[in-house]
Amino acid sequence: VLAKLPKYFHAGPQDFISIFPGFELAGLNVTGMDQIERYGPLIPYCLKGKRMMQVDLISLHGVRFNVPWRWCSGKLGSLSVRSELFRFTAQFRIDSEGVPGGDVKLFKEGPTVPVYAHNVPLFVSGSGPIDAVVTEVLTKFIPSHLWGDMVLPYFMHALQRTLE
């Protein structure tokens, strides 16, 4: 299943939309979901008569979020966020009913929980010689625990599409 996750996908508007007068953002580009790997053993269990599986997943430098921006002056750039390491736990229901050849089908069921995120910098490009300063200041405002809130909904969306 992980091997089928997309390398790239786009979410949100294709065109720029105004955030406040003079500043616009385009839709979010997500790359690197295909680099998410299993971390540790698969843990089978039963819940209310259903076969279930818990799996820990890890991303090492893989997933990156990029949002293009532009000022009314015509200056263009992007905001990018990635985590050096991100680990989370997901639950799946295992079903073999109606699947030919004795194969099984996985269904995303139950919570997906962030476990750990390390070093979550925000990169700013296109703002000129102050890119490094802007990057350093904005990075301080993104605590690592927010990374899970950003990544997991997009991971779940990509995973759901992969399982269908």
From TrEMBL:
This is Putative secreted protein.
